[in-house]
Amino acid sequence: MGPLSSPTASYLETLRDIAHALSGSLQESDIVQLLLEKVMATMQAHGVILRLLSPDGDELWPAGALGLSERYLDKGPVQLSRSEVDQRVMAGEVVTCTDVTCTPGFQYPEAAAVEGLRGMISVPLTVRGRVIGVLRVYLDDIARIQPDDILLLSTVADLGALALEKVRLHQGLLHIAEALNSTLELQDMLQRVLEVTVSQLHLKAGSIRLMDPKGRVLRLMAAYGLSQAYLAKGDVHVDKSPVDQRVLAGETVVLFDVEHEPGFEYPAEAAREGIRSVLVVPLTIKDRPLGVMRAYSARPRHFGPVAVNFLRSVADLVALAIENAQLYASLRARYEDLKIDLADWYRFLALG
Q1: Mean per-residue pLDDT for 4-13?
Q2: Which end of the chain has a smaller Cβ tally under 10 Å, C or N?
């Protein structure tokens, strides 16, 4: 068999180079920069920008750009409610525009005109069926783009999305381990773990609830990303929450839309809070339930095996840290009691 003809060989070489480079990167910024440089060179683009979905699912935040001025990048956030183009991309579609300055549904046509932008290809960054962001490529002559070019761009975007997920999970576990080792004060430790978990899984919010001694109520121990109004709804009563009954029995529960899922105790409050999907995992020590850990998404989300296993791993580490923190608190209390007893004994001896 003879050598592959161009452009097939060039495309395969590009994919190989990108795959090798991405596999060796352990920083999100490095992955984004590499992706942008490769796309810029391969597509001979005017400019490229990569945006990631915000935790609340309402905006696309810039993660990196090449070939675009600071003035253009500072024009403001991309709001999905005002950008029909990006709504289509977030639904999994590749969108091609011959002139963004007069394309319906493009949010900033005036700024694009000042920047000298015309043609554009927007592709979704998809990982495990979930779109996490948008890669935009601006071209001076979009007429030269062939279907193979768009296929290459989509494949590169998916490689980048997979690499970003890998790095987030890797860095997430490192940051969570740091948070667990940062303090033996239970409240502070749980709060730090939640902040890292919500950030790494690109969630809206998270919470940790522990059972009371009688096993009837799940009391809030830590929360991140939730309003005071939502938190004020009260404790979760185990007998009124079939979902938490299942989780306390050791099951992982995924609720795709809490407003219409049976067994969720506060569906109306969750809807007002902007919560759509919830992942709930147990906190257990040696098969003994301690409580539950919840991850909240602002968009409907089918939590896949990677997200589920990640959160379960975090929950196992948290449960162990809770036991250690409770043991530390018990030992400290006994130490304080011992100091009081010794002080009383010394006073008794002094009086004697």
Answers
A1: 61
A2: N
